[in-house]
Amino acid sequence: MLKGRSFLTLKDFTTEEIQYLLDLAIDLKKKKKSGLKGNLLTAKNIALIFEKPSTRTRCAFTVAAVDEGGHPEYLGVNDIQLGNKESIEDTARVLGRMFDGILFRGFSQKTVEILSEYSQVPVWNGLTDDYHPTQVLADFMTILEHIGELQGKRFVYMGDGRNNMARSLMIGCAKMGLDFVVVAPKELWPSQDWIQECQAYHQNQANQIFVTDQVQEGLKGADIIYTDVWCSMGEEDKAAERIELLRPYQVNQMSIEATGNPDVIFMHCLPAVKENEVTTEVFEGSQSVVFDQAENRMHTIKAIMVATLCENQLI
Ligand code: CP
Ligand code: NVA
Question: Cβ(233) to ligand 2 under 6 A?
């Protein structure tokens, strides 16, 4: 079903395929917790290309590969010639002759698309300026663990409504039947075209995407409050402007109370800038599930590698 495919954006995957990856990740987590050593990736060589820094994504791919008998190889931006002395196309063809799969984290979505087209092996997007699809799988797995279901839940995203996380979560929520609410200043709203494209991914048109700059209204009835850094990697020069715009959209104790839901959970892809997008109180509070999300990066990334490199693993 998924063998041989790349994982570049959730747009390319059906609701059933996303559910399959979540089920597989849950199985693989159980297997690891029971102490069973895996061999699903034995003899698989995995290239890890990083143009931008990473803690979770790098460690998740490395540990996931080793857990199942694979060999990960870190290729930092200063280690290889990607798009510099050697074209992305040529690099892709060389790596594809040696490796079974390639992870790319970097700036341009086009780069990850070229890598996939030319390498002839599965390529996984570990974050670009446009999308961060592996993060969304970990987020959904965490919601399943804490809330029990995805369908019909109200997912509120506070912050930059146009960044890679907001875009990826909007696609994911539409595909999995969650209502998705962006609470952001007008300057950082997603475009109407983008909202329409994502709305079309909803199988059940009862589920909606909403965008508002009204914090109280946006948060009402939330099951999940999610936020991300105000400046994504590569946008550091925008810090002053973003703080000015987004200060009223910080997730704090008042935001939690505004949901009116005592069981609301707080999520963040991390790394977090505490006292900017979220207060330390909420980050450390009982609603916060951020470290479960971080752990689940590993289980979901393992599921993606296993699903795209091996035969169907679920009955
Ligand atoms: N959430 C996430 O992608 O973290 P890293 O930047 O540490 O990989
Ligand atoms: N939007 C953030 C996500 C980090 C995981 C960034 O791109 O830096």
Answer: yes
Quick one: 244 exposed, middle or buried, by C-beta within 10 A (0-12, 13-18, 19+)?
A: exposed
3-state class of 197 per DSSP?
helix
Give the CA diameter of the chain: 56
pLDDT of residue 311: 82
Q: How many whole angstroms from 285 Cα to the centroid of ligand 2?
A: 22
Query: Which residue positions in the chain have pLDDT lower than 70?
Result: 205, 313-315
| Nearest residue by C-alpha to atom 2 in ligand 1 | 56
Domain map (residue ranges) of the chain: 10-132+294-309, 135-293
Fold that domain 10-132+294-309 belongs to in CATH: Rossmann fold (3.40.50)
Angle between helices 164-176 and 133-147 (to 10 degrees): 50
Ligand 1 atom with least separation from CA of 53: 6
pLDDT of the residue at 313 = 67
> What pTM was computed for the model?
0.97
Output the residue whose Cα is nearest ligand 2's atom 2: 232
Residue 99, classed as helix, strand or coil, is coil
Q: From CA 230, how far away is CA 165, in angstroms rounded?
A: 11
Expressed in angstroms and rounded, the spacing between residue 109 Cα and the centre of ligand 2 is 14
Pick among 3.40.50.1370, 3.90.960.10, 3.50.50.60, 3.55.40.20: CATH of 135-293: 3.40.50.1370
How do strand 101-105 and strand 123-125 relate by DSSP bridges?
A: parallel
144-167 pLDDT, tens digit per residue, is 999 999 999 999 999 999 999 999
Q: CA-CA-CA-CA torsion for 157, 137, 88, 119, nearest 10 degrees?
A: -160
